[in-house]
Sequence to fold (172 residues):
Amino acid sequence: MTAQIEPDKLGGSDNAVYSLKEVATLEGHSDRVWAVAWNPVQRVIASCSADKTVRMWSYNRSGGREDNGKDGSSKAVEFLPATEITTGHRKTVRSIAWSPSGKNLATASFDSSVSVWERLEGDEEEGESLGEWECVSTLEGHDSECKSVAYSNDGGLIASCSRDKSVWIWEE
Fold:
């Protein structure tokens, strides 16, 4: 799939046309995928799903962004399944957010809770695996489904919003 975007629609001022091309499809969830988030310091993308899990993929760029496939396909980015977190949420995981350090991941669920995950100490990256993750905190209190979660720029605060028409700020 290819998409062209005119820069003036993105706030650009020149007449160039940017071209975007699909380079990968990440599969593995058994139900609807709700959100994705790039890790800010590692080459990792995470996704969350109605199957109550978080999946992570690591990726590598080989030879830059240009196409190098004979059939016009891009071989510049390769994604590998890295790990899956079985979250323990009772309902859909609707939103995920990485801390600015990239060490923690927050999940917001339709079960009205937010969980904070941390990779287990000493569980270093080996090949495709990002190891085991541990829930270090569960934030409860919303009266209804949590729709989104976000970290502050310094990582000291977490914001969650809910169908209960509230935004809660949590301090780590």
Remarks:
- The chain is about 0% helix and 50% strand.
